[in-house]
Amino acid sequence: MKVRKSVDCIGMFCPTPLFEARKAVEEVEVGEIVEVLADDPSAKKDIPEWAERAGHEVVDVKEDDGVFIIKIRRGV
């Protein structure tokens, strides 16, 4: 799974990571993957919920040492 764009939102508080994720997804082509790194616990819930509502696929959500790594494949 190749990540097309990575967004570092570590140290940012919601809703900023959500806005950054949304902007990044809009900048890639349909089918490409965006990776969002965030340490705000709200991002773990808010970003995947937004992505699914917006028609994108949440490919992976994991946590590594307090950092959430969220991968989203852009839908239509």
UniProtKB/TrEMBL annotation:
Gene3D superfamilies: TusA-like domain
Record domain UPF0033: where: 7-31
InterPro entries the UniProt entry points to: TusA-like, TusA-like_sf
Protein name as annotated: Putative redox protein, regulator of disulfide bond formation
Family membership: Belongs to the sulfur carrier protein TusA family.
Pfam families for the chain: TusA
Signal sequence, start to end: none
